C-alpha cells in the first residue's frame, strides 16, 4: 500500500511499551512476533505507538464493528473514511421511516425468536445479527434491549418513538432538556 507514515494506537500497554523498547519481552511465545514487528517498523519513514486505556478506546471498537460489517476482497479499492473528532458527544434523535413497514429491530426480533436470518443475508450480515441479538430478549411480540445494569428497555418503532419524544419533550413530561438529558429520561422510562 506504500504507506510511509503510520500512527499506531493500542489498548494493550504490554504490547505498546514492548514495541517502544520501554519494557522487555520475556514471554517466549511473543518474542517471534516482536522480532517480526521490529522488522516491519523499518519499512516506515515515520511510525509512532500510543497506548490508549480501554475507556479511551471507543474509536478502535467502532472501527472493529465497521470491519465486521464491511465485506471486502483483497485488492478491492474502497472509499476513504473521514472521521471528525468532536469536543463533546453527539446525540441523534432522527427517527427513520420504516420503508418496508417493519420496525428497525425486525431482523433481530425474528432471529431471537426463531434463529432465522432475513432472506438474502450474507455471511457478515448474519454474523452482525447474531452479535446484536445477544443483547436482546423477546417476550411475545415485544423485544427488549438488555441495558448494562440488567434492566430491560422496550424497543419501539418509528410511530412509538415519535410519541415518546413528543411526550418527553413537550407533552406529559414537559421537559425542555438537551438531547443527552432527554435520552437518559427516555431510557429511565424503559424505552430503547
Automatic annotation (TrEMBL):
Q: Which PANTHER family match?
A: RIBONUCLEASE H, RNASE H TYPE-1 DOMAIN-CONTAINING PROTEIN
Q: Which domain of life is it from?
A: Eukaryota
| Pfam families membership | RVT_3
Indicate what this protein is called per its UniProt record: RNase H type-1 domain-containing protein
| RNase H type-1 domain span | 2-66
Q: Which InterPro entries match?
A: RNaseH-like_sf, RNaseH_domain, RNaseH_sf
